[in-house]
């Protein structure tokens, strides 16, 4: 955690820190919400690495999707959804625990701001949608996900891929 905070020059929100310390990084749900680790070696997906890459690419690829009053350097990417949605903290001040969540679909926006923080966003993601089937939402640690892939199994089911 300290490496990421030092590299980024910020304090990460305490609910994210508690989540990572409790569960680690991984995916949640069938169309996963991916939560990367705070820090990792160069070239790996991590909060620090993703933030730096986004800040580097934003002027060319993302700035046109942002409202005029929000610059890319105020967005700290903490996750993504398999459908191409990037998840950010909108760094609105010095208190990281007060940062709202913003999401941006990579193929066309718009940037949507959710006034609640990380824990509330993840909790909402994990709440089943009412309907005929309410499958429980599962968390899969990245190591287990990779193990299943290496064995030729579908990480969402634990069974061989359907042909």
Question: How is this structure best described in words?
Answer:
By secondary structure, the chain is α+β, with helices and mostly antiparallel strands. Helices cover 31% and strands 18% of the residues. β3 and β4 (85-90) form a beta hairpin. The N and C termini lie far apart (41 Å).
From the structure above, extract its key features:
single chain; 7-stranded antiparallel beta sheet; 163 residues; alpha+beta; globular
Task: Describe the global form.
Answer: globular
The number of E-state strands comes to 7
Radius of gyration computed on alpha carbons: 16 Å
Beta-strand content: 15-25%
Order of strands, main sheet, comes to: 6-5-4-3-2-1-7
* Biggest sheet overview: 7 strands, antiparallel
Q: Mean pLDDT, rounded to whole units?
A: 82
Low-confidence stretches: none
Through-space gap between termini: 41 Å
**What pattern of helices and strands is seen along the backbone?**
HHEEHEEEEHEH
Structural class: alpha+beta
Helix content: 25-40%
Put simply, the count of helices is: 5
């Amino acid at each position: 955690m300290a490496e990421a905070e030092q590299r980024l020059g910020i304090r990460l929100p305490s609910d994210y820190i508690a989540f990572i310390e409790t569960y680690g990084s991984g995916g949640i749900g069938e169309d996963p919400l991916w939560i990367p680790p705070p820090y990792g070696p160069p070239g790996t997906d991590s909060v620090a690495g993703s933030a730096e890459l986004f800040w580097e690419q934003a002027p060319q690829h993302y700035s046109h999707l942002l409202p005029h009053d929000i610059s890319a350097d105020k967005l700290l990417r903490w996750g993504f959804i398999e459908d191409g949605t990037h998840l950010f903290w909108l760094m609105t001040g010095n208190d990281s625990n007060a940062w709202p969540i913003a999401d941006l679909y990579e193929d066309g926006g718009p940037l949507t701001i959710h006034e609640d923080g990380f824990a509330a966003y993840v909790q909402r993601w994990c709440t089943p949608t009412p309907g005929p089937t309410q499958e429980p939402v599962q968390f899969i640690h990245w190591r287990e996900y990779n193990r299943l892939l290496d064995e030729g199994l579908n990480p969402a089911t634990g069974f061989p891929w359907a042909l």
